[in-house]
């Protein structure tokens, strides 16, 4: 399992609770505390029962606890101490980064060995801002110093062959199972804030993600809140995202998605896709439930249920053309992505007026199947005037509301 986030669990077998001796190779300022029962003599009638968490691993109080010294200043790199602590805590321990302390990570850490480790993050983990080729990064109340990366990347696009910035991703999992992150603040990621690849059962709860540029001429580009590829089980609840790109955007082969109480500000919205980007490759996104999304000041709004949208250019969008592709090219190369059974329920609010009176745009490619699209309780208004317009092209069947082809819309 490869996991570059500091909070990793896996379905590892437990170590027995027997003695772990204190070692004397501790770095300066580091300490190891054994769980209390480990310090008591093992009497025949003692009957310590381990409590287990929901994956069958030890709970916090039964874990060996490792602490390390914090950074003295913004150049005091404690990467080596941190790596030491993770190795010591591997297989059933806990690394505690303490409240009010700052831990500066300036090196790329290979955390591929992680197996049943908890990181209790009450302090701040900060990454250095040297622009160099760094791949893995991550942590909780984590300040990733994205500004320098956004400034350096300014004007570029990821697929651009001349792009020389391989910007780090704050939280990356690959081939990982059972990831749970809660209560943390993920700040200023250089590129995608999270990216889950070939992973199973990823849960984010009560997380705050922000990436806001302080340089008026650069955008916090591609700092999407949630990104996934080949993932089964992605749950995001009670989370706020304040970034310059997508808020929540599962990519190909993401299944069993559950989102509830998501607040997005200044984002591109909740997007399913891109899917069907590569000819001949079959991609799917299925079984998604998205409920109670608040979308403020964005570009696109979103889908499904109880969505409140304010000041957003295109609140409800379903289309098959994206990324610097003009309408003619799109018409010439028909998409084969089928969209079936997508329901937009109870979507209300205002749009910015950028696209005239159009508040919802559903444009399918003539080459694909688009059916079972249903809109209900949609109350979106546009400052460009009423009645507001809903566009639908190439959709088979009734969508539940009056709609007009794009050619008749006044935008
Ligand atoms: C995924 O991890 C499992 C062990 O957890 C390993 O056996 C397998 O080889 C890994 N797969 C890849 C593609 O890395
Ligand atoms: C803002 O970003 C631009 C583009 O990278 C850069 O030239 C400029 O120096 C930055 N401004 C500040 C104040 O850092
Ligand atoms: C909807 O989400 C917001 C946070 O964005 C939360 O304050 C509110 O309580 C949620 N509403 C319901 C009905 O859960
Ligand atoms: C929401 O985003 C706008 C810019 O799009 C910003 O001015 C505002 O401060 C943000 N609000 C919050 C609560 O972060
Ligand atoms: C999605 O899954 C299908 C079937 O398992 C596979 O053929 C395809 O390559 C996957 N797509 C991506 C982008 O990984
Ligand atoms: C519709 O969504 C709003 C929040 O935007 C919520 O207060 C209301 O209860 C929802 N209505 C239904 C019928 O679910
Ligand atoms: C899309 O639907 C059409 C018609 O039902 C079907 O022939 C085609 O195989 C479907 N494409 C995919 C990628 O599932
Ligand atoms: C639609 O929303 C507006 C405010 O945005 C409100 O005044 C109006 O009553 C709503 N209409 C319905 C049918 O809910």
From TrEMBL:
InterPro entries linked to this entry: Glyco_hydro_28, Pectin_lyas_fold, Pectin_lyase_fold/virulence
E.C. number: 3.2.1.67
GO CC annotations, alphabetized: extracellular region
Catalytic activity: [(1->4)-alpha-D-galacturonosyl](n) + H2O = alpha-D-galacturonate + [(1->4)-alpha-D-galacturonosyl](n-1)
Gene Ontology molecular function: galacturan 1,4-alpha-galacturonidase activity; polygalacturonase activity
Signal peptide: 1-19
Keyword Repeat assigned: yes
A biological-process GO annotation: cell wall organization
Compartments, as annotated in UniProt: Secreted
Keywords recorded for this protein, A-Z: Cell wall biogenesis/degradation, Disulfide bond, Glycoprotein, Glycosidase, Hydrolase, Repeat, Secreted, Signal
Keyword Metal-binding: no
Matching SUPFAM superfamilies: Pectin lyase-like
Domain of life: Eukaryota
EC supergroup of this enzyme: hydrolase
The protein's role, per its UniProt record: Specific in hydrolyzing the terminal glycosidic bond of polygalacturonic acid and oligogalacturonates.
UniProt family annotation: Belongs to the glycosyl hydrolase 28 family.
PANTHER family documented for this protein: EXOPOLYGALACTURONASE B-RELATED, PTHR31736
Protein name (database record): galacturonan 1,4-alpha-galacturonidase
Organism (species): Paraphaeosphaeria minitans
